[in-house]
Amino acid sequence: MKRHLYAFGSLCRGEIDELSDVDLLACVETQDQARTIDTGRFSVYTRDRIRVLWREGNPFAWHLHLEAKLVFASDGADFLRELGVPREYEKADEDCVKFMRLFEESVQSLHSTSDSQVFHLSCIFLAARNFATCYSFTRGSPIFSRRSPLLIESPVALSTDVFDTLVRARVLSTRGIGEALTPHEISVAVRACPQIHDWMQSLLPSEVSV
Amino acid sequence: MSEFNNRIDAQRRILRIVNGSRNLREELFGLSSGALERWARANNVGQHDPLLELLNQAASKLFFLSNKSQEQITDEYQSLSAEVAVLTERIQAATSNASL
Fold this sequence. Notes:
Chain A has helices spanning 10-13, 31-34, 47-56, 59-67, 79-83, 92-112, 117-138, 148-151, 160-175, 183-191, 193-203, and strands spanning 3-8, 23-28, 43-46, 69-73. Chain A is an alpha+beta fold.
């Protein structure tokens, strides 16, 4: 059965630092074939599912189209390249609203209890990063970097220290590695949340409500 | 609320049950395999601890949320909310009985 393996993400952008991981994609023919692959190491998709993402103009399809590098092909072909250009991504505003809601729920959680602060901050990072990536599509130049909120043409007004605290929260949550955040770091990051809110609000079209 | 946000909310509820229930040496930071391993190590939770096993089950249901931030804008998740809700109740019960 055919199998195509790709690298994507920070490795393909040359963004290598102590928190970088290696994103790998496996494109397979059947669900049975998918079940034989370690999903802890690979994002596993059937070829049919990938084709659907392409037809939907899904941001992940664009991410793969623009960044993925073929590592192995059982048949010598480049499956993703052969799919051509994905359909235009048309849900950027809708997705930006979704991520702003996630941001607001996470801020509410930060203020309503004293536990799970690292997780709430990790969700704030996720919301800001995905918001910026979706917004970057509307400007004609998608940015998939972890630092997309700082790289788009209207970047968030956060200090590097605060942004790095949010990145560390995300890495603690998703991979369990890194120094735990100190109460001071958490407090400084929480105080910066209104800046993230104002940034998101300023980038949403005026007719869109959250 | 979108399916994506619902699943974050499910994860948030589980973490608050675990982190709000007792004095931990280190909180649980997420439901990724790496975060669960770190939490178990930091709090001397055994590999076969019933609470850890339930958390691992919940993590597998929410796998895409926990581990795959690159894909979290795809919304391509199976409908597992009922199973996660049952697991959340069992985690709530297990935290009452855990020896941490």
